[in-house]
DNA sequence: ACATATAGCCTCCGGCC
DNA sequence: GGCCGAAGGCTATATGT
């Protein structure tokens, strides 16, 4: 990640170091402040920073608001016997590389540190070193397997517009599958696709099986089987989301009064207590609760309007609306 | 691995107020 | 125009063979 752009980073560091005037310090501080929001724009939840991943994400809905964050804090070495302080050194670990991004790579350009072209003799030497470097970095079949699978996961996730956090979850799942010996006899692409499918659901950005099939190299049935297999063998319960997590987002899309959201929250709580929600889509529960709350608070709206804002059909809103009212 | 059953959700449509 | 309900189809999931 950061290893790929050493120049831009170094130049930025130079700029900061060279400009010791108050003016430039102010601009630097402003730049840092611009990423200091603490509330999620989607659901209003608390944003927390994960320094290890270089991300900031919402604790409620999982929305990643800031990736590839560059830590401009002190980069000092620790000589005291206080290992906790040595935490932030080097690039953040990533599950998306078979070696977790820990290794370095010999560049492809045949140039020295000053950008000058290498002599033919040196060039031949570097080519030999590159070959061996590559061999060591993916030395056994399992490493090569991981490299191929993570490449697939990354490619499919890009095609589906899934965030990096989802790719990381998918990569972790795949690694777990390998560690549990679930790979032999199954195709890499199938398990990789299933890992991504599961990760997308787990990180609240689900994609349908059809969407995944469209970007995967294996057919729909294989992905489906691999998914079941993973769920069964790894005992993965993909717990359905709480309807309340969708309330705030829908509510702000619809531009209702805050009171509507409070009432809707109460309605959902009662519905959940009576187990009306089980087996039902949390989306439809949230949509119906908003419709019911709007009616109870004399807010002007229609089923069609809520259907548009939530993507839940008006028929389903009607059904869940009845369910919710029955238990109040 | 494949077939079948079930439940949830969807679209489409017509009737009612 | 908005609400309601029925019919039929699609999909995900569970279960049986």
Topology:
Elements: H1 6-18, H2 22-33, E1 47-50, E2 55-58, E3 64-66, H3 120-137, H4 141-160, H5 164-179, H6 188-202, H7 209-215, H8 220-234, H9 244-254, H10 258-273, H11 282-296, H12 303-310, H13 314-326
Antiparallel strand pairs: 1-2, 2-3
The chain binds a DNA duplex (17 and 17 nucleotides) through residues 208-210, 224-225, 228, 279-281, 284, 302-304, 312-316, 318-319.
CATH topology of the largest domain: Cyclin A, domain 1
Q: Which CATH class of the largest domain is shown? A: Mainly Alpha
Q: What is the terminal separation in angstroms? A: 53 Å
Integer tally of domains = 4
Order of strands, main sheet, comes to 1-2-3
Stretches where pLDDT is under 50 for at least 5 consecutive residues are: 1-35, 72-76, 82-86
Mean pLDDT reading: 75
Task: Give, in order, the helices and strands.
Answer: HHEEEHHHHHHHHHHH
User: Structural class given helices, strands, pairing?
Assistant: mainly alpha
The share of residues in helices is 40-55%
- For this structure, the quaternary state is single chain
Report the major sheet.
Answer: 3 strands, antiparallel
Number of helices: 13
Number of DSSP strand runs: 3
Proportion in β-strands: under 5%
- What is the assigned CATH homologous superfamily of the largest domain? Cyclin-like
Q: What value does the Rg take, in angstroms?
A: 25 Å
Basic shape: elongated
The CATH architecture of the largest domain is Orthogonal Bundle
InterPro entries: Cyclin-like_dom, Cyclin-like_sf, TFIIB, TFIIB_arc, TFIIB_CS, TFIIB_cyclin, Znf_TFIIB
Family: Belongs to the TFIIB family.
Protein name: Transcription initiation factor IIB
GO molecular function: DNA-binding transcription factor activity; TBP-class protein binding; translation initiation factor activity; zinc ion binding
């Amino acid at each position: 990640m950061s290893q790929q752009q050493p120049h831009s980073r170094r130049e930025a560091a130079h700029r900061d170091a060279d400009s010791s005037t108050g003016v430039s310090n102010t601009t630097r501080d402003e730049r840092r402040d611009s990423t200091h929001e603490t509330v999620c724009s989607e659901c209003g939840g608390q944003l927390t920073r994960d320094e290890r991943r270089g991300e900031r994400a919402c604790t409620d809905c999982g929305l990643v608001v800031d990736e590839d964050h560059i830590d401009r804090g002190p980069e000092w070495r620790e000589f005291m016997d206080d290992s906790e302080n040595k935490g932030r050194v080097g690039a953040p670990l990533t599950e998306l590389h078979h070696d977790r991004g820990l290794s370095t790579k010999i560049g492809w350009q045949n140039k020295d540190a000053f950008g000058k072209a290498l002599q033919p003799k040196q060039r031949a030497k570097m080519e030999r070193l590159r070959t061996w470097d590559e061999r060591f970095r993916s030395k056994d079949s399992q490493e090569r397997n991981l490299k191929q699978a993570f490449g697939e996961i990354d490619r499919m996730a890009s095609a589906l517009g899934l965030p990096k956090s989802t790719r990381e979850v998918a990569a972790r799942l795949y690694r777990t599958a390998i560690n549990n010996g679930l790979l032999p006899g199954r195709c890499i692409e199938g398990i990789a696709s299933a890992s991504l499918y599961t990760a997308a659901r787990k990180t609240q950005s689900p994609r349908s099986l059809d969407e995944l099939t469209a970007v995967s190299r294996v057919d729909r049935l294989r992905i489906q089987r691999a998914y079941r297999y993973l769920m069964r063998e790894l005992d993965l319960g993909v717990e359905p989301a709480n309807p309340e997590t969708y309330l705030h987002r829908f509510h702000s899309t619809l531009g209702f009064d805050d009171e509507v959201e409070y009432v809707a929250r109460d309605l959902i709580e009662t519905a959940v207590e009576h187990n009306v929600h089980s087996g039902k889509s949390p989306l439809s529960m949230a949509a119906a609760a908003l419709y019911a709350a709007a009616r109870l608070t004399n807010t002007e709206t229609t089923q069609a309007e809520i259907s548009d804002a939530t993507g839940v059909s008006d028929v389903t809103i009607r059904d869940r609306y009845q369910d919710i009212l029955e238990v109040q």
